[in-house]
Amino acid sequence: MDSAIRRRSQGGLFEGLYRVIMRRNSVYVTFVIAGAFLGERAVDYGVHRLWEYNNVGKRYEDIPVLGQRQSEE
């Protein structure tokens, strides 16, 4: 009895991941699709912020008087 309890509690990280995520195919596919979606969003956000950081002062939004006429005063 004691060895059965010990065996059940010594699962480890991969054993726990298997039990939670990969045991049923529907849960595994949902996990992969959600992970791909969230990963894509995280990479897109990171690349966008890095691009903005490297191009400060060179963007269209940074030029204050672009397209405005000078006043004739």
The ordered H/E elements are: HHH
Give the number of helices.
3
Low-pLDDT regions: none
Strand % is under 5%
Q: What is the tally of beta strands?
A: 0
> Level of helix content?
55-70%
Shape: rod-shaped
Distance between the termini: 95 Å
The profile of the biggest β sheet is: none
Mean pLDDT: 82
Alpha-carbon Rg, integer:
27 Å
Structural class assignment: mainly alpha
Indicate the topology.
Blueprint: H1 2-9, H2 12-22, H3 25-54
Features:
73 residues; mainly alpha; 3 helices; 0% strand; rod-shaped
Task: Describe, in short, the structure shown.
The chain is mostly helical. It has helices spanning 2-9, 12-22, 25-54.
Mind explaining what this structure looks like?
- The protein is mainly alpha-helical and 73 residues long.
- The protein has helices at 2-9, 12-22, 25-54.
- It contains three helices and no strands.
- The mean pLDDT is 82.
